[in-house]
Design goal:
The complex is a heterodimer. Chain A is mainly α. Chain A has helices at about 10-15, 20-40, 75, and strands spanning about 85, 85-90. Chain B has a domain at about 1-260 and about 465-480: Amidase signature (AS) enzymes (Alpha-Beta Complex), CATH 3.90.1300.10. In chain B, strand 7, helix 8 (about 275-290) and strand 8 (about 295-300) form a beta-alpha-beta unit. Classes of the chains: A mainly alpha, B alpha/beta.
Chain lengths: ~100, ~475
């Protein structure tokens, strides 16, 4: 069962993933099948059922507001694709 | 041979000064040199670093340090490629991380070091833990030590194969929908998924944060208890880790199954289970009965919705978690005309196909107009699945099921049909959705070819100790855990 609403180009764009035309065709078809399968959940009546985001009922986990040691700047930058003067280099965003 | 020992067998010899940690580490390296060309469980090994840690353990042992204080002192243990260990790679078997080196030790790594373990090697996995066969690794597949034409399962396939091939004395993996238990079943070892919140996820690259748990893969149940004891516990760095006491899992092993109530979920024993798997499972249930367990049939009516629920919840969370791989702060960057195309190019070229498929699916189910129909509905069904477990645990101590409906399949068999691959996780997935604990242990073999079959036990939240007791009682009454793959 294919899902006709599914626009692979649009969603890949939202996800910031460039796909080749072959990938678009293949992934689009596979995702259509998968969405057809997960629609199985429509069989169930979920009226009045609380959604569950988490298995453990922990809420508002706080720690004391104290200064802790952190990773030195050089270590934090060590994996940067590009860096200059202790800063990450990124493309220009604002014209 | 040294590499054939269990973890507890090795610690006994280390304590008695019959062998050194260096000899144990060297035995693993020699074994890897001899068989890993065939198995391909390891992506890399930092040999000098490993032998240096072993020498340090030998110094500590010579100075009188004991396994009572440090239960893993001098024991070589390997890590799935998504744990952060300072100065070591953490590629998650993906190209997108390039030559990334972790700037810090994650909590599990730190705890293992504190317990004296010699941490070595990066174990192959499905890219970002997404898959059930380890075929989704960007660095080649891992082969099942029992039949090299077949998959080891996944996503912790390298972790399971390395234990089965006796290349390490135990390994650490992660389980989001079965990624420890399923490969343990297919490779014939013991794999434990602790309760959500039992083990810290700090320093573990996240796939689906409400489902991921860290756990051990070992040759027997006792070793599983030892490793769990070392890694479990509350961690201020992970707000979802739970502040409850960690029992002495090893000390609590023992006893028979008299009075233990095991639940047989009717909905798990459906058509489509391989006949040899079914026969081995039925024999295992009989064996538990013979050991004193009471078997009760229970109903878990929402079982058939587990896979669909999982593939909405897990991919939604993954789409958010993997947004961090954008080519800005770490990993490989593929430039473009502007920032937008840099993101798209980096992620388009860096991620493999299964990861792209899941991120796109997760993005879709969270997107405007589809959130209620997919994501919110799945969260509600997740509640129903959790209720199934709560109801079952009102009458039984644990559930008993096959781990996987079939033994290891041939490499390539399911790669073109992701939905079929997903459906092979049907028995393991609901445990993660409910957030409870589960273990897989060997319960037999198919005849031709000889392939391991896994028995799954699912326990109450934070009921790992009880689960390990039951698993231990079954294991000690059966020969399966003593069988080794011939390589």
């Amino acid at each position: 069962m294919a899902d006709n609403d599914f626009d692979i180009k649009y969603v890949a764009n939202l996800a910031r993933i460039a796909l080749s035309p072959e990938e678009e065709a293949r992934l689009g078809a596979q995702l259509g099948d998968i969405l057809g399968y997960v629609k199985k959940l429509e069989e169930l009546d979920v009226t009045g059922v609380e959604p569950m985001a988490h298995a453990v009922p922990l809420a508002n986990v706080f720690r004391a507001d104290e200064v802790q040691p952190s990773i030195p700047q050089q270590d934090a930058l060590a994996n940067a694709p590009k860096q200059v003067n202790g800063l990450f280099v990124v493309p220009k965003i604002v014209e | 041979m040294l590499h054939e020992l269990t973890l507890s067998g090795l610690t006994a010899k280390l304590a008695a000064k019959e062998v050194s940690s260096r000899e144990a580490m060297q035995a693993c390296i020699d074994r890897i040199d001899a068989v890993d060309d065939q198995v391909n469980a390891f992506m890399s090994i930092d040999r000098d670093n490993a032998l240096g840690q072993a020498d340090a353990a030998d110094v500590a042992l010579a100075k009188g340090a004991t396994h009572a204080g440090q239960p893993l002192l001098g024991v070589p243990v390997s890590l799935k490629d998504l744990f952060c260990a300072k100065g070591q790679p953490a590629n998650c078997s993906s190209r997108i991380l390039g030559d990334f080196r972790s700037p810090y030790d994650g909590t599990v790594v730190r705890k293992l070091r504190d317990a004296g373990a010699v941490l070595f090697g990066r174990l192959n996995m499905d890219e970002f833990a997404m898959g059930s066969s380890t075929e989704n690794s960007a660095f080649g597949r891992t082969n099942n030590p029992w039949d090299l034409e077949r998959v080891p399962g996944g996503s912790s396939g390298g972790s399971a194969a390395a234990v089965a091939a006796q290349e390490c004395f135990g390994s650490i993996g992660t389980d989001t929908g079965g990624s420890i238990r399923q490969p343990a079943a297919l490779c014939g070892c013991v794999g434990l998924k602790p309760t959500y919140g039992r083990v810290s996820r700090y320093g573990v690259v996240a796939f689906a944060s409400s489902l991921d748990q860290v756990g051990p893969l070992t040759r027997d149940v006792r070793d599983s208890a030892t490793l769990l004891g070392a890694i479990a516990g509350h961690d201020p760095h992970d707000s979802t880790s739970v502040p409850t006491e960690v029992p002495d899992y090893v000390a609590e092993l023992g006893g028979d199954l008299k009075g233990t109530k095991l639940g047989l979920p009717r909905e798990f024993l459906i058509d489509g289970i391989d006949p040899e798997v079914r026969a081995a499972f039925d024999a295992a249930v009989k064996q538990c009965e013979a050991l004193g367990a009471e078997i009760h049939e229970v109903s878990m009516p929402h079982t058939e919705y587990g896979v669909a629920t999982y593939y909405i919840v897990a991919t939604a969370e993954a789409s958010a978690n993997l947004a961090r791989f954008d080519g800005i702060r770490y990993g490989d960057r593929v430039d473009g005309d502007d920032l937008f195309s840099l993101y798209c190019n980096t992620r388009g070229q860096g991620f493999g196909e299964e990861v792209k498929r899941r991120i796109i699916l997760g993005t879709y189910v969270l997107s405007s107009g589809y959130y209620d129909a997919f994501y919110l509905r799945a969260q509600k069904v997740r509640t129903l699945i959790k209720h199934d477990f709560e109801q079952a645990f009102e009458t039984v101590d644990a559930l008993i099921t096959p781990t996987v409906p079939a033994p290891a399949f041939k490499a390539g068999e399911k790669m073109d049909d992701p939905l079929q691959m997903y459906l092979s996780d049907v028995f393991t997935i609901s445990c993660n959705l409910a957030g409870t604990c589960g273990i897989s242990l060997p319960c037999g073999f198919t005849s031709e070819p000889k392939l391991p079959i896994g028995l799954q036990l699912l326990g109450k939240p934070f009921g790992e100790s009880r689960l390990l007791q039951i698993a231990n009682a079954y294991e000690q009454a059966t020969p399966w855990h003593t069988e080794r793959a011939v390589l």
